[in-house]
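Anyone able to model this chain together with adenosine-5'-triphosphate?
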Amino acid sequence: MILLIGGEKGGTGKSTISTNIAVTLAHKGHEIVIVDCDPQGTSTKWLTRRNKFYSDLPKVFSIQKTGDTYDTIKDLSTRYKHVIIDAGGRDSEELRTAMVACEKMYIPLKASQPDLETSKHMTQLIKLARSLNNKLDAYTIISMASTHYNLNEDKEAISLLAQSNIAKVSDVIIHERKVYRDAIADGKGVIVYDNPKAITEINLLINEIFTNA
Ligand SMILES: Nc1ncnc2c1ncn2[C@@H]1O[C@H](COP(=O)(O)OP(=O)(O)OP(=O)(O)O)[C@@H](O)[C@H]1O
Ligand SMILES: [Mg+2]
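re: yes, here you go
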């Protein structure tokens, strides 16, 4: 599977979701490579910490790639079972070429107006990418959602996103949890922490990604 976690909004949890999917699949015994398209290298730095301090944990590989990512992604897909691309934060060559190379794309968005506003332009990018990659399967996913039950923000955001006939909306919501920040800081995935809710939502996301493949 070539999976892109991308979008043009910054700070929506793309690297958090990419690294957690990668680690969880690695714990299941799969060979995973992350293509880190972010010049800030969040995923690469996370992996450096992981390799330095926890060499006994299941291995995840990563490479950094900027500019045109197409050939790199296609080449890696012949050597690894799953290629996970962490791209975006803005509309860029990396994001656009990854959208042409990938099979499935998840666009994390917070349930807030500035994030949701970007979904319109993302729709145009998806249409453009599909003219070169007609199999591109695109989902939006609510990320960093509040854990307060009485807020209707998520439901409102989901019903807004569901109006799109270009991208589907994920059935999974990733919530704002400190364990995600701890995991990024430690070079691990939430899978090794005692936080069943976080583990469950990452596993649900993985099930959705791979059962609808
Ligand atoms: N579900 C979450 N719960 C708590 N904190 C989160 C969650 N997701 C992300 N964060 C925190 O929010 C910040 C941004 O997350 P992250 O780096 O994953 O976003 P990004 O979309 O990759 O950002 P960028 O666009 O800069 O690449 C980080 O400090 C991260 O630890
Ligand atoms: Mg990032």
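The chain has one domain: 2-211.
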